[in-house]
Write a structure and sequence with these properties.
Largest sheet: 7 strands, antiparallel
Shape: globular
Structural class: alpha+beta
Number of strands: 12
Distance between the termini: 74 Å
Strand content: 15-25%
Radius of gyration: 26 Å
Order of helices and strands: HHHHEEHHHEHHEEHHEEHEEEEEHH
Number of domains: 2
Oligomer: single chain
């Protein structure tokens, strides 16, 4: 097979991927979504058309390709894709349906949710919000810090159990495997597109197909993750933070706890030099900092949603550890307000905090009090000694432990009982 023909097949597969990405970005715009969806399906057919039109250039093509045809004939999704292409060509459209389901997020885990329902039952997201039963809306925590997450999915009547873009991702990966095999047979180097196999864009998260509505005021909220490669100017960093800010220490850590020690030590240096520390989530894989994500967020409601979405992302990218670091308000003893939240305390403190968890189940927390200068409050005079814990239950890490299947239910029960005892000792107005 000529290099030109092989390049044409790869280019056509890339066109299929681009249509997929257009459909994904227009998920909540039905007209544009359906146009991109149909483009993705019809383009997928040309991948194999071009391949077969050049079969004379490839020895034993018929025998080799027949193994894939046999495999695909037993694959319900590949059979659906074939029939869907025919339906578009003959009828001009698919029999697609839009479905929605919703759930209330007002904590780091749990919450009521619906089954998948027809989109036709609701005229708008606000209509769904108004349908939330009063028994949930009247719960103070839900009313003040709750978010209604409305997921949408598109399905085809001929493949009702599988979301259409997930089905087309499967088709795309089958073609990637086919062309990877072909490159190996021809002794040709794999292009980056095939070597990566699963594009980051084809690892969609719930947040990409959801709308977030504040239960408190009906405003839209939520997050979107965007990937960006960034070069690090090590000379500039060393000039600003000194030689002690040495991330090279990460290369010699032997376990997750040692990695956490290094990260928090570096965070202390940044906090002292800059006077602030943005909130970050660091995805860890095999003791490597795999993804660093800025997670500054406006309120507690958004934090609940954000941590759940991050947990889903950790699972999608096969992370086996998570570190969440930033500044936090603190309150202890008699300073704890009736709400139980330090941000509401009249006499509150500040701290640099870090929470971490690994897929094996262990969690770690780090804390250092922030002491500000009296006149220049934006500057840090000093940080208190680092306090560490690894024996308690961290609610903020629960979404990740659920995703990894390592949630310790005994520790969870004990933590909930401890909170109940603390809240019982607060003034009566705390019951509000």
């Amino acid at each position: 097979m000529s290099t030109e023909a092989l390049t044409n097949v790869i280019n056509r597969l890339d066109h299929m991927k681009r249509y997929w990405e257009e459909a994904n970005s227009d998920y909540f715009k039905p007209d544009r979504f359906l146009i991109a969806l149909q483009g993705c399906i019809t383009t997928s057919r040309t991948v194999t058309f071009i391949l077969q039109s050049n079969k004379a250039s490839f020895p034993d093509f018929e025998k080799w390709y027949a193994t894939y045809q046999e495999k695909w004939s037993q694959d319900p999704i590949m059979a659906w894709a074939r029939d869907a292409r025919n339906a578009i060509e003959k009828r001009g459209d698919l029999e697609t349906l839009s479905q929605v389901k919703s759930r209330i997020v007002a904590s780091y885990m749990g919450g009521p949710e619906t089954e998948w329902l027809s989109q036709d039952l609701f005229s708008s997201p606000i209509a769904m919000l108004l349908k939330v039963p009063s028994k949930f809306r009247n719960i103070p925590q839900v009313r003040e810090h709750g978010t209604l997450v409305i997921e949408r999915r598109w399905i085809d009547k001929q493949l009702p159990e599988t979301e259409v873009l997930e089905a087309l991702t499967h088709v795309y990966l089958e073609f990637v495997d086919l062309l990877t095999d072909l490159h190996h047979r021809l002794g040709v180097e794999l292009p980056r597109m095939l070597a990566d196999r699963v594009p980051l864009s084809m690892r969609p998260l719930i947040m990409d197909r959801a709308i977030y509505i504040s239960i408190k005021d009906g405003s839209e909220a939520g997050f979107r993750f965007h990937y960006k490669e960034q070069e690090v100017d090590t000379r500039a960093l060393r000039k600003r933070y000194g030689r002690d800010a040495n991330w090279e220490k990460l290369s010699s850590v032997g376990n997750f706890k040692e990695l956490c020690d290094v990260v928090f030590a570096q965070a202390r240096i940044l906090m002292l030099r800059d006077g602030y520390h943005h909130s970050f989530a660091i995805m860890v894989s095999k003791l490597r900092l795999w993804r660093v994500i800025g997670i500054d967020h406006p309120d507690r409601a958004s934090r609940y949603v954000l941590m759940r979405d991050l947990a889903e992302l950790a699972k999608v990218i096969d992370a086996d550890g998570i570190i969440v670091i930033g500044e936090a308000w603190t309150a202890r003893g008699k300073d704890v307000p009736p709400s139980g939240y330090a941000v509401d305390a009249q006499n509150r403190g500040e701290a640099l905090t870090m929470h971490a968890a690994e897929a094996a189940g262990q969690t770690y927390s780090y804390n250092a009090a922030i002491i500000r200068k009296k006149k220049k409050k934006h500057k840090v005079k000093a940080l208190g000694p680092t306090e560490q814990r690894q024996d308690g239950f961290q609610f903020i890490m629960a979404p990740f432990q659920i995703a990894w299947g390592c949630l310790d239910h005994e520790k969870l029960k004990k933590a909930e009982d401890d909170i109940d005892r603390i809240m019982a000792k607060l003034p009566e107005e705390a019951a509000e």
